[in-house]
Amino acid sequence: MKHIVYISEKEREKCRKVKEAFAELENEDIDIMVADAGRYGYVRLMYYNEIYGFDEAVCYTNSTALFNDLWTDWLNAQLFKIALEDEPLMDLDYEDIFKALPDEKQQELMRRRQEFAEQSGITLS
């Protein structure tokens, strides 16, 4: 059987930087882990259950796709925390929670995106 490599070394290094930039996700109570899957790329594991393990796994061979998904996960976790403190926001979806925030808070969250991108070496469009 042929040994196929699905991710280049260059892209592997970029994914590693993205993983490290978002390391705080693994320390929060949102059940997300990113693992190096060797020749297959990086895997984002989500929604851990003690009986069944992780409920969702997505494999990445592109650092920009990994960055975008981890950014969305991080942002949604922050918006959820904000909604917990402001009861009326709990009935809204994440996009509407973001829109309901004061401009300063929206800008603060988006600055964090830029910081993650700089740490990752990702260029935002």
Describe what is shown at a glance.
Helices cover 52% and strands 17% of the residues. With 125 residues, the chain is of the alpha+beta class.
Which terms would index this structure?
alpha+beta
Task: Report on the architecture of this protein.
This protein has 125 residues and is an alpha+beta fold. It contains five helices and three strands; from the N terminus they run H-H-E-E-E-H-H-H. A three-stranded antiparallel beta sheet has the order 1-2-3. It is globular, with a radius of gyration of 16 Å. It starts with 8 loop residues before the first helix and ends in a 5-residue tail after the last helix.
**Number of beta-strand segments:** 3
**What is the overall shape?**
globular
Low-confidence spans: pLDDT under 50, at least 5 residues?
none
Biggest sheet strand order reads 1-2-3
Strands, helices and their partners?
Blueprint: H1 9-21, H2 24-27, E1 32-36, E2 42-49, E3 53-60, H3 63-85, H4 94-100, H5 103-120
Antiparallel strand pairs: 1-2, 2-3
Helix pairs in contact: 1-3, 1-5
